[in-house]
Design goal:
Elements: E1 10-13, H1 19-30, E2 34-39, H2 46-58, E3 62-66, H3 72-86, E4 91-94, H4 109-131, E5 139-143, H5 147-150, H6 156-175, E6 182-188, H7 201-208, H8 219-230, E7 241-244
Helix pairs in contact: 1-8, 3-4, 4-6
Length: 250
C-alpha cells in the first residue's frame, strides 16, 4: 500500500532526464503528482531527448520543459508556463548539478564559476522564481551532498556549492514558513549514477571502505526520502538536511 498520495499536486524537477532527477520524478509521479521534467538545452539535444523520452515513458501527468537554471528570466518563463497549463505549483526539486573536479591548486576560474553558477546560483534562481508561484503548503527540496558536509579532495567548487545549498535551505525555511512552505535538503552519499560513475575505481574502493552499510546508494533510495519530504508525513519537517549516505561521515 502506498501511504503517500500526491494526487492533484504539480511538481517541477530540475535536471530530470537522468540519474537522481529522473528517479525523483518517477517517485513523485508514482505517488500521483503531475511532474514537469526540466532540462537544459544542450547543443547536441541529448538532454532534451532524455527528458522527453522519460516523460513519454511515465505517460499521463508528465511533460518535459526546457530552462537553464543559470538564467532566472528563463526559469520565470518556464514556471509561468507550468502555472498556466496546470493552474498551480506545489513542489520544486532542485536537482540540476555538474561536476568539474580538480585540485584547488590546479582548478581554473572557469571550473570554479561553472560549478557555483549551476549548483548554487542555479538553486537560488529556481527558488527565487518559484517562491511567489508556489501554493501555500508547498515544498522545496534541494539536492545537497555529503561533499558539502565533509569536503572531498578535488571538490573545492562542488563542496562549496553544496554547503551553500544547505545554508540557503535553512534561511528559506524561516522566510517561507509564514506560507507553510517547507524547505529541506537531501545530502546523498555516493550514488553510482552517470555522475557517480566518473569517480575513479580506486577512489570508489576507498570510499566504500568508509560506508558502514558496505555499499553505495541506489537512486530510488534517495528519491524515496525526497518523496517523504514532499508528503504530508513531513508536514513538520523544515530547514533540515537529511543525510542518506549509508552511515558514512567522512
Amino acid at each position: 500500500m502506498n501511504f503517500i498520495d500526491l494526487s492533484g499536486k504539480v511538481a517541477v524537477v530540475t535536471g530530470a532526464g537522468r540519474g537522481l532527477g529522473l528517479a525523483t520524478a518517477t517517485a513523485l509521479h508514482a505517488a500521483g503528482a503531475t511532474v514537469v521534467l526540466n532540462y537544459f538545452e544542450d547543443s547536441e539535444g541529448i538532454n532534451q531527448n532524455l527528458a522527453k523520452s522519460a516523460a513519454t515513458a511515465l505517460g499521463d501527468r508528465a511533460i518535459a520543459m526546457p530552462a537553464d537554471v543559470r538564467d532566472r528570466a528563463a526559469f520565470d518563463v518556464m514556471l509561468d508556463g507550468v502555472v498556466k497549463r496546470f493552474e498551480r505549483l506545489d513542489i520544486v526539486i532542485n536537482n540540476a548539478a555538474i561536476i568539474r573536479d580538480r585540485s584547488f591548486k590546479n582548478m581554473s576560474d572557469d571550473e570554479w564559476s561553472d560549478v557555483i553558477d549551476t549548483n548554487l546560483t542555479g538553486v537560488y534562481n529556481v527558488c527565487k522564481a518559484a517562491q511567489s508561484r508556489l501554493a501555500a503548503g508547498g515544498r522545496i527540496v534541494s539536492m545537497a551532498s555529503i561533499s558539502g558536509v565533509v569536503g572531498f579532495y578535488g571538490q573545492a567548487n562542488y563542496s562549496s556549492a553544496k554547503a551553500g545549498v544547505i545554508a540557503l535551505t535553512k534561511v528559506l525555511s524561516k522566510e517561507l514558513a509564514p506560507r507553510n512552505i517547507t524547505v529541506n535538503a537531501v545530502a546523498p552519499g555516493v550514488v553510482l549514477t552517470e555522475m557517480g560513475q566518473t569517480i575513479p575505481e580506486s577512489v570508489r574502493e576507498q570510499m566504500l571502505a568508509n560506508i558502514p552499510l558496505h555499499r553505495f546508494g541506489e537512486p530510488h533510495e534517495i528519491a524515496n526520502v525526497i518523496l517523504f519530504l514532499c508528503s504530508d508525513l513531513a508536514s513538520y519537517v523544515t530547514g533540515q538536511t537529511i543525510h542518506v549516505n549509508g552511515g558514512w561521515w567522512g
